[in-house]
Amino acid sequence: MTSSVELPELPDGELPGLFEGTVPPGVYRCASVGPDVLMQAEAAGWVGTVVDLTGAASKADFMDRCATGLELPDWFGRNWDALADCLTDLSWWGETDGYLVMTAGWRDFEQAAPQEADTAAEIFTAAAAYWAVRDAHLSVLLG
């Protein structure tokens, strides 16, 4: 199982590398996320969004925040399998050069619901690996 605590940090100044391909796609912890990251993603031809986990303390909270932040399709079943399905079939998000999911409030969620955070990290990691061998990559920043 992927422990969210063991995920690598995105080094300072390496964000452009995600979009340029010099930093491999994947799941990274980061200090914070902000609107400038979305602007950089858009400028690179990527689609990006923020999932705000501020105050999330359960799986249900996490799923609700994902449904809202990612604007998941109506068929999203608010369970781990459905999240994995959505993240490996991004047709609902449109075609692009890459996909960027950023979270805000990850560390608080991780402390409030460590098992759920680990499961979410595992799903994010599997989805990033799935997209790593395709034309459009997926990266997740846990801030």
Based on Cα principal axes, name the global outline.
Answer: globular
Named CATH topology: Barnase, Chain D
Largest sheet: 4 strands, parallel
For the CA atoms, what is the radius of gyration?
A: 14 Å
Number of helices: 6
N-to-C SSE series? HEHEHHEHHE
Unreliable stretches: none
Structural class of the secondary elements?
Answer: alpha/beta
Q: What would you say the CATH architecture is?
A: 2-Layer Sandwich
Count of spatially separate domains: 1
Neighbour order of strands in the largest sheet: 1-4-3-2
Q: What is the percentage of strand-forming residues? A: 15-25%
Q: Give the oligomer, counting copies of the same chain as homo and different chains as hetero.
A: single chain
The CATH superfamily label reads Barstar-like
First CA to last CA: what distance? Answer: 21 Å
The CATH class name reads Alpha Beta
Helix content: 40-55%
Structure overview:
The protein has 143 residues and is α/β, with parallel strands linked by helices. It has one domain (23-142): 2-Layer Sandwich (Barnase, Chain D). It is 43% helix and 16% strand. It has 6 helices and 4 strands, in the order αβαβααβααβ. It has a 4-stranded parallel sheet. Helix 4 runs parallel beside helix 6 (114-132) and helix 5 crosses helix 6 (114-132). The longest helix is centred in the last third of the chain and has 19 residues, at 114-132. It is globular. The model has no long low-confidence stretch (mean pLDDT 93).
